[in-house]
Structures are given as structure tokens and as C-alpha cells.
Amino acid sequence: MRAVIQDRYGSADDVEVADLPEPVPADDEVLVRVRAVSLNGSDRENLTGSPGYARLGGLRRPRHPVPGSDVAGTVVAVGTSVTEYAPGDDVFGELAGYRGGLAEYVATSPRLLARKPPALPFAEAAAIPQAGGIALRATRGLRPGDQVLVNGAGGAGGAFVIGLARHLGARVTAVDRADKSGHLLRAGADDTIAFERSDWADQRDRYDRVVDLVAHRSPYRVHGALRPGGSYLMVGGRTRVLLGTAVAGPVLRRLTGKRVGVLMVPQSRADLEEVTALVTAGAVGPVIDEVYPLEEAPTALARLAAGDSLGKLVVTVP
């Protein structure tokens, strides 16, 4: 089979498309014929090996040589103990702990998958799992009129957070590069901030919730932008900021009543089905910037690393 191979950390120049043996599913796995894969910020981290926590799956080289976690495709074989899926079932999901999605076939656990709605195209289905799960958890509990800021909103998952927050009645300020402001407004943001021109953390008592997809500020710096009772949720960013946020969060909450912490997003089929129901109902949806064939996956990864995409990058597998 054709597959993307990454045998070391580095850049898209260190990735190639080559032939690999077709995987054989274990007794408790399914074999999926991949139709589409979407790229996430975590794929950029796994490509470069940075921040440091990206190397938890392999200190010197990736433990899984085939990248890609958000997939959609069709089950073609099942292990002897698998009863919930059968060959011919269309599925999608995030292959956390497995990766291997950027290939013609991938063997994975059925618990990581959900049934793809028939009317949902494979490319759109592949764009939902990680971004949709983060957005669902990051916006849970929002009320109409809440002021929400999304930092790093122009990347793979930002549009999903914007869309869900707006669906819940919040007013959204989106932060990214100045040249992405039009995209952010089209995605549903009420206001935008260009980070080259202004630092959102300079504002005081402004937001009920901050969703930070690219955190690099101290937790002591960001909590001042929150209204009383507000919450700051770190999703991705530098290792030292993650550790600092995890340690300082409980202290700041006791001192100020403001919640500062790391957003935990467990693998959840129920979450995936919930956000997908919103997509199929037309309430929210992923924003796809560009679609690439598998043979051009290194180009897609290079764009992901450059950070200039306006939404999701998707790789299709013929």
C-alpha cells in the first residue's frame, strides 16, 4: 500500500510517500480503507518533535512511522473478537495512540471509531474528530451573551470553536495573524485581534472564557483578562507553559476565583457523535482550506508547519 513515512523528527522535507505492507488487524482491531485524513496541530507537533511532550510517543524518532490521526474510511476486515462493525461500514474517528492514518489502509481499535452519517462526505467527516472534540469541550457551559476569546483561531481547529461558541449565543473575539482576519470573520467571529498589533492579554476583566490553542503566556499574565468567575483553557502550546498552567491554576482559582487550566479532551465516541449531529444539522461545521491527494501529503504537511492555512487541510486517498 502507499503510505506517508516519517522516520525522524524534522520538517516536511523528512517525509516521503512510499510502499509499505498492508497492515493485518489484530483480533480486537478493524482494518479501514482510508478515504480522507485531516491534519491537526498535533500533526505539526509530531512532525517537528516540539514541544517536548510531542516526543512522549518516541524520544528520538516517532514510535509510529506513519503519521495522521483523524481519518474517515470504510471497514474492509475485522478481527475475530470485533462485533460492532462489519466490512462495508463507513466510519471515522481520531486514532489516538495509533496514528497511521496517512495511508491506504490502517488497522485500529473499533472503540476509536464512530459510524459516518451517510450524507456526510469523507473529507468533511475526517475534519471533525480532534477539532470537533476540542471545540465541544472548550465551549461546554457557555451561556448566551458570554464574551469568548479564541487565541490561534485561524488554524486547524479554531473555526470549530468559533462556530460552537456562536451557536451557544456567545460573542467571539478571534486572535491570529492580521492576514487571517477576513477568514475569522467568515467563520463567525464578531471581532478579531491581529497579534502582531495588539496583545489580548493586556485587556483586563474582559472575557468570560479564553480558549488558547497556541499558549505561550504565563498563567499569571492571562488570568487578568478574565472577568470574575471566568475561565482560561489551554489547549496547545509550549511545554513550560503547560506545566506552569497546571501548577498555578489551582492557586489562582483560590486567590481570584478565576479558573486557569489545561483543557483535557478524553477520547469519546459520545462527544464525536454529539458534535457530528450538530454538523449534520447545519449548526456548525469544519472549515476546509484545501484538499490534497495522498501523493502530495508532504506538501500539505509543509503548509501545516508554515501555519498559513485558513482552516483544515485534508488529504484524500484514492
Commentary on this structure:
The chain is of the alpha/beta class. The chain folds into two domains: 2-127 and 286-316, Medium-chain alcohol dehydrogenases, catalytic domain (Quinone Oxidoreductase, Chain A, domain 1, Alpha-Beta Complex), CATH 3.90.180.10; 136-262, Rossmann fold. The chain has nine helices and 15 strands. It has helices at residues 41-48, 122-126, 129-139, 158-167, 181-186, 219-222, 239-256, 269-280, 297-306; strands at 2-6, 15-19, 30-38, 70-78, 90-94, 105-108, 113-115, 147-151, 171-176, 191-194, 207-212, 226-234, 259-262, 288-293, 312-316. Strands 3, 4, 5, 6, 7, 14 and 15 form a seven-stranded mixed β-sheet that branches. Strands 10-9-8-11-12-13 form a six-stranded parallel β-sheet. Strand 14 (288-293), helix 9 and strand 15 form a beta-alpha-beta unit. Helix 3 packs across helix 4 and helix 3 (129-139) packs across helix 8. The longest helix is centred in the last third of the chain and has 18 residues, at 239-256. The radius of gyration is 19 Å and the shape is globular. The mean pLDDT is 92. This is NADPH:quinone reductase-like Zn-dependent oxidoreductase. GO terms for molecular function: oxidoreductase activity. InterPro entries: ADH-like_N (IPR013154), ER (IPR020843), GroES-like_sf (IPR011032), NAD(P)-bd_dom_sf (IPR036291), YIM1/Zinc_Alcohol_DH_Fams (IPR050700). Residues 10-315 form the Enoyl reductase (ER) domain. Residues 43-68 are annotated as: Disordered.
